[in-house]
Amino acid sequence: MSGRWDFWIDRGGTFTDIVGRAPEGGLHPRKLLSENPEAYRDAAIQGIRDLLGLKAGDPIPTGRIGDIKMGTTVATNALLERKGDRVLLLITRGFRDALRIAYQARPDIFAKEIILPEQLYERVVEVDERVRADGCVERLLDIASVKPAIEQARADGIDAVAIVLMHAWKFPEHEQALAKVCRNLGFGQVSVSHEVSPLVKLVGRGDTTVVDAYLSPILSRYVSHVAGELGIETERAKPASATARRPSSAAPAEASERSERAAVSPRLMFMMSSGGLTAADMFQGKDALLSGPAGGVVGMVETARLAGFDKVIGFDMGGTSTDVAHYDGEYERAFDTEVAGVRVRAPMMRIHTVAAGGGSILHFEAGRFRAGPDSAGANPGPACYRRGGPLAVTDANVMLGKLQPDFFPQIFGPAQDQPLDTKIVREKFAALAAEIGDGRTPEAVAEGFVTIAVENMANAIKKISVQRGYDVTEYLLNCFGGAGGQHACLVADALGMEAVLIHPFSGLLSAYGIGLASVFASRQQALLLPLAEDSLTAIGELIESLRAAVLSELAAQGVEEATASTRPVLHIRYDGTDTALPVDFTAGSIGQARQAFEAAHKAQFGFIYDNKPMIVETVGVEGADVSEKGRSEVDSETEDRAAKPSETRRIFTEGAWHESGIFRRETLKPGHRVAGPALIIESHQTIVVEPGWQAAITAKDHVLLRRVERKTRRAALGTAADPVMLEVFNNLFMSIAEQMGVTLQNTAYSVNIKERLDFSCAVFDSDGALVANAPHMPVHLGSMDRSVETIIRLNEGDIHPGDVFALNAPYNGGTHLPDITVVTPVFELIDAPSSGPSGHLLPAGEKNEAATPAPSSPPRGEGGSRSEPGEGESRQPPRILFWVASRGHHADVGGTAPGSMTPLATTVDEEGVLFDNFRIVERGRFRERELHELLTDHPYPARNPHQNIADLKAQIAANEKGVAELRKMVAHFGLGVVNAYMGHVQDNAAESVRRVLERLPDVSEYEYPTDTGQIIKVKITVDRKKREATVDFTGTSPVMKNNFNAPEPVARAAVLYAFRVMVEDNIPMNAGCLRPVNIVIPDGCMLRPAYPAAVVAGNVETSQHVTNALFGAMGALANSQGTMNNLTYGNETYQYYETICSGSPAGRMNSGRGFHGTSGVHVHMTNSRLTDPEILELRFPVLLEDFHIREGSGGKGRWRAGDGTKRTVRFLERMECAILSSHRNRPPQGLDGGGDGEAGSTKVRRSDGAVETLRACDQTVLEAGEAVIVTTPTAGGFGSE
Q1: DSSP class of 213
Q2: Cβ distance 1033 to 1016 under 8 Å?
Q3: What is the C-alpha to C-alpha distance for residues 677 and 1171, in angstroms, rounded to an integer?
Q4: Strand, helix or coil at 25?
């Protein structure tokens, strides 16, 4: 040993964990509150002082300290609280608002008041320069024009600058020149996008660069503080003119100087989000966001490996949140992550965080139990922390006896010497039980909240495992974090896992993992070349360049090349998709890389494409110090016997009090067994061994928990509504819909579904009533059940296992033709003709060996005649238990204009191909030939039927995921219980809407005039005795010879959306929301058209109008922009569409509080994402000249509307262009005295300079060099000024 102490530290949000390694090798844990200003200034320093036995005021003896390895939440907290440094953003002219608008989607589609994350930069300066996607310089860099603004920012005290220019990831010359100017002007922090994150995507790279500039100075000051306290000299004291890029080369003298310094002073290293350590003076903002949690991943993997497990799910439950991670032989790193509303394009451990920790606040509202998402944090903390905090999950465990105050660190109260406060916990739970008033005891209330918290955590694990194709029942659950041991058995039971590992340092495993981590460096560079032999030279040259930079960085930290291991990684995706997977390229073989990618794609998504080109999107090189082999743990002799408890205490679990043994961890020896229920008391945590589980102490002194008795469903769980199980089922149903959505997004072919998320997935009961929906597009909400009801009605008695249906008919349950709904019945389990697990088609791309031959005369576009049962089949098919459905917006289904958004259509046939009850899978056989014929045998056929077929296969695969998960639910809870709770969640949603109706006036009306001269009239009448409302559209204009006719499901979706928004709470979205609402739509009006009326604008435009009318009638919101500004362009090679956002309207919450609108965000019935500007220009022959927010354009009033946008797209090839829009000749209206917004416009700039104004619905042809300019209408204000 070195004769010095080493310290491994995780400074978390609630606690700071320290593991000290003494000179003789012994490990000593220490846990402190991260924020305890009455006692100490910094928890990490105090922990070191405590372990060294120093008294207050004693200097820290530097010579006694060796390595300090540290993870910190300093950067994350600064980001969450928006307390970073002031930043100047320099960005290409035309893109000043690119990071603010981002992809234009709102985070909560049901938010009445839309709140977007606050931008990190304080000031933005647009730079006169422009480089095209191919490197052609469109506009030379004009430094002279921008330098005065940069100088002014510096003079105003801004010391950090972020430089982000279009396509600089590949063509960085302009960024390099600007960076030189900024350094010469004395900026302390200069972050340059091609150095911080040399990856394609302007928004992600730009956000990463800004966050690096924002946080690096904060980190610098913290590192200097820690180093100063420890007497460590770092480079941080020098002027920080360096960028976030680590040195690409390091002189031998520099490396030698570092080594000499380390020999005489402690070596301070920090954990990066990527899972490796770096020197303190190389620690940058972009690398710090998951600093602590990354240590937990390393700890979970290394401890599981020592225990003999290679498939691990990490479960790190702390005070404010729970982190979960997956490991199956390789560390998983993500390169596109969102943290606190900021998109980060940098290597980070793939960690999913859920707001469920010991500090999660407990709520009982509207008959529902909820845990979180808000947290009591460290201050005030849970109620038991003696700081006046609210009830939290930790308090629930105190109430249940699972946390015993005399076995918990006594660190509370003014003198930090008091135990947990059980008295206040009991008082608060007793009061809550009385408020609930259903007879349940305070401890039953507490257990209910724990159950919900456990389900939240289990659902988080499903997101990183089940949703990605992994079977968690084959995995070890490695449980750690201060609160993990209390819930380990419960979480495992919720997932069907039967083994849990709890390491002796599980309560401090992030700190332990940081100690086991190695010095690490990595480089990535976007490439975008085909995975082909012709690209091998370019790939090899880039790998060598990146490897040299990695080795240089390691050398600068004293890691010699002989002890450094490097690994090249290719990030490969299919051409035209956006999901890249990492593939090891150590062998340097294109063929092996292709095979590895296909294997990874098949494992994650369930299919591979035939003959589809692959693209190397990014090349990376990872390097690590392999001189340290990690910590070994020796085996001890075991004594196989049942341990004896030191005493017993009562704990409440499974609905009753149990006498439970108390076992001190230090008394348990290898080989000892502990049967549940029991509590194992460690110095830093309590492990709860639930009934039916057994804890064994292994030869390595680990606690290995295994279920030894089969889990039985509690007899008390019946079909009557229980508030706890109501919340559990709410979450479970939604989780199934979300898992379906992930499957669809991952397996889809088209940009619309995969990247822009224009799809929805849903679960329905046996009658076709909506139970749970995971929508991205609100217009899908109230209309998918109409599609399911249509399939049920038209195929009664002729639906068989293995059948799947497709429908887009606007007059028969659909909305408009591009939105195709795929509907799958869920049958009782029987033997089915398909080899799929549930009698349906196997995942897209897989061959079905049991497929039956095609019928001789297949039905086309309809259900066809009833099919006769085959030999050996029952004439009475088994019962249909449930339904699942997925709806996706297809890029093109034919019609007179590319993209099938035909603005001049007057009949539905001009809009594309009609699917009217098409049986797309018949008894397990995918009817691809008939489907292709349907798509092409049409006056205006689909332009790319192979893409339609691929997306429909993805929808079928998504439905199969829903079928499988519903089957699991029935197997676990029983069919009667599942059916009952499908009804209960609808009842709960209905009750939530009824409470909204109580706030509405008896009668309210609104008239909404449209550009077409039509009027939407709505009258809302509330029957207070029945607690129901009637929404009557009588007086609305009749169907006209245009395409603004909205099918009845569209109007119904608008009503459902509006009332769901009015609830202002996170209730499930299901059929119950409309149960108290009677909708009256007269036949023949524009909201109930009949064949062959055109409907394309009815879906995208009239839906917005109806929503505006409803909110106007309810006095809640001024008019939104009232359009989606649907811009479609394409030719024979390319087809693309985008919807363009404006600002949200001002309005009033149910409490009467008014609010301003938000600029540059989608509202109401759409939430479609925009393609990143760089991706757009790489994939399509266009140049985005400008996309900005028009400041001051929103409606005025006491509460102002958000501002609209202006977008200019120049075409580099000849293309057809179409616009589908509204509010071109009349502005959206204000409400309650608020001012109107502004009308919008669509213009075309011709090559000769002439500017043409298009009609609201129009189409034209643009030649190369011509541009379309969309100025969006703006929303209305609310209230008189």
Answers
A1: H
A2: yes
A3: 54
A4: coil
* Residue 578 CA: distances (Å) to CA of 304, 616, 618, 671, 754: 33, 12, 12, 51, 7
- The helix or strand, by DSSP H or E, that contains position 347, with its residue range, turns out to be none
CA distance 839 to 879: 13
* DSSP state, residue 1161: B
Q: Give bridge partners of residue 759 from the DSSP assignment.
A: 888
Higher pLDDT, 165 or 464: 165
d(CA 875, CA 135): 66
Contact in structure between 527 and 543 (CB atoms under 8 Å): no
The tens digit of pLDDT for each residue in 883-940 reads 999 999 998 899 988 778 788 888 999 999 999 999 999 999 999 999 999 999 999 9
Residue 758: what pLDDT? 85
449 CB neighbour count, 10 Å cutoff: 29
429 within 8 A of 442, measured Cβ to Cβ: yes
500 close to 489: Cβ distance less than 8 angstroms = yes
Mean pLDDT of 125-138: 97
- Strand ranges in 1033-1181 using DSSP code E only, listed in sequence order: 1077-1080, 1126-1130, 1135-1138, 1147-1148, 1154-1155
- Angle, CA of 951, 787 and 1072, to the nearest 5°: 120
Q: What tens digit of pLDDT does each residue of 742-798 get?
A: 888 878 877 778 777 889 999 999 999 999 987 677 777 667 889 999 999 999 999
Q: Find out whether the peptide bond into 677 is cis, omega within 30 degrees of 0.
A: yes
Q: Where are the beta strands (DSSP E) in 406-519?
A: 476-480, 499-502
H/E stretch holding 963 reads: helix 945-973
Q: Do residues 959 and 888 touch, judged by C-beta distance below 8 A? A: no
Say how far apart CA 827 and CA 805 lie, in whole Å.
Answer: 15
Is there a contact between 1185 and 1210 (Cβ–Cβ < 8 Å)?
A: yes
Contacts of 1174 (CB under 8 A, 6+ apart): 133, 166, 167, 169, 200, 201, 202
Residue 1041 has pLDDT above 50, yes or no: yes
pLDDT of residue 834: 38
Asked if residue 181 lies in contact with residue 150, where contact means CB atoms within 8 angstroms, the answer is yes
Helix, strand, coil content of the chain in percent (nearest 5): 30, 25, 45
- Preceding peptide of 61 cis, ω within 30°: no
1113 contacts 1005 by C-beta, under 8 angstroms: yes
Contact 567, 544 (CB under 8 A): no
Give whichever of 368-377, 1154-1163, 1169-1178 has the largest mean pLDDT.
1154-1163
Residues forming beta bridges with residue 620, ordered by sequence position: 524, 569
Q: What is the pLDDT of residues 376-396, one digit of tens each?
A: 877 788 999 999 999 999 999
Residues 962 and 884: beta-carbon distance below 8 Å: yes
| Mean pLDDT confidence for 1038-1058 | 92
Q: What is the 3-state secondary structure (H, E, C) of 693-762?
A: EEEEECCCCCEEEEECCCCCCCCCCCCCCCHHHHHHHHHHHHHHHHHHHHHHHHHCCCHHHHCCCCEEEE
